[in-house]
């Protein structure tokens, strides 16, 4: 696991010119968490922070890379505005939520099904004084109202247990509902969905939400995990195309969007009303990151 993490750190675009420094950060934290077992606060983007404890892999990757999902995260900060509503499905400990509410100043609705992870999400929101902007929901999201069994010991990779899966670790039953029902009269401008392969079920439970023209952006995990469920990645991709969304990559340093012919290897930015989106990112304020204004 450590070797995989090191490879991830060294291959990150922000670490190409400072690999030694990145490795030192990794090993220094390894020593610190052995001596200090309490949560620690780390600076994140601009004036935000992350409260991180041992085992919070998604938050730890931000420490080692600065911004792990570099292109998607900076796209979010360039696109969102204070009047927008960002929906975080599969919020985990709140990295995207903190960027949306704490950096972009938007309102956020954040769904995290696992109670232990939800408590860490809530802690990050509270530490950043964002309770007034973030609506926290300890729920799963799917294609109907029901209860589903999730893994409960895999940190950022906890997921709905598929029909042929035999989980080795702890499990938990969690209430699940659809986005159409959960959002009620709220209209999202931007949705991020990272639910370890259950993305198509989330989409299938949101026909009214997806039909609303105010929704311009969906960032989706597209690493092939959905193929273990009833609806695979090809289904999901074609469904979004049929709704008028097209896949793009983003260069945050040039603020340039490039249309893709297929999905991204890890995540994909799906856009609708490209002219509107381009105008948004071109007129966005510059984000202060390390020694750069992006």
From TrEMBL:
One of its GO terms (biological process) is methylation. Residues 88-227 form the Methyltransferase FkbM domain. Pfam families: Methyltransf_21. It comes from the Bacteria. GO terms for molecular function: methyltransferase activity. InterPro entries: FkbM_mtfrase, SAM-dependent_MTase, SAM-dependent_MTases_sf. Coiled coil: none annotated. Gene3D superfamilies: Vaccinia Virus protein VP39. The keyword Methyltransferase applies. Keywords: Methyltransferase, Transferase. The keyword Protease does not apply. This is Methyltransferase, FkbM family. It comes from Dyadobacter soli.
């Amino acid at each position: 696991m450590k070797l995989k993490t090191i490879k991830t750190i060294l291959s990150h675009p922000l670490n190409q010119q400072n690999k030694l420094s990145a490795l030192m950060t990794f090993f220094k934290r390894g020593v610190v968490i052995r001596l200090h077992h309490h949560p620690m606060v780390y600076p994140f983007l601009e004036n935000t922070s992350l409260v991180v404890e041992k085992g919070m892999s998604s938050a730890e990757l931000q420490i080692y890379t600065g911004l792990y999902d570099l292109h998607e995260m900076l796209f979010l900060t360039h696109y969102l505005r204070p009047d927008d509503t960002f929906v975080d499905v599969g919020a985990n400990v709140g990295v995207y939520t903190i960027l949306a509410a704490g950096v972009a100043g938007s309102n956020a609705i954040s769904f995290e099904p696992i109670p232990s992870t939800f408590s860490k999400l809530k802690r990050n929101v509270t530490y950043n004084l964002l309770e007034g902007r973030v609506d926290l929901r300890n729920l799963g999201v799917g294609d109907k109202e029901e209860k589903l069994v999730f893994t409960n010991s895999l940190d950022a990779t906890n997921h709905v247990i598929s029909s042929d899966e035999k989980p080795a670790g702890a499990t938990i039953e969690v209430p699940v509902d659809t986005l159409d029902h959960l959002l009620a009269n709220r209209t999202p401008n931007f949705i991020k969905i990272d639910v370890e392969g259950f993305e198509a079920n989330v989409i299938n439970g949101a026909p009214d939400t997806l039909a609303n023209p105010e929704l311009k952006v969906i960032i989706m995990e597209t690493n092939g995990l959905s193929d273990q469920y009833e609806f695979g990645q090809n289904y999901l991709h074609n469904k979004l195309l049929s709704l008028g969304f097209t896949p793009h990559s983003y260069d945050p340093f040039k603020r340039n969007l490039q249309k893709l012919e297929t999905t991204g290897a890890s995540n994909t930015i799906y856009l609708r009303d490209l002219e509107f989106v381009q105008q948004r990112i071109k007129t966005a304020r510059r984000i202060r990151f390390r020694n750069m204004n992006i």
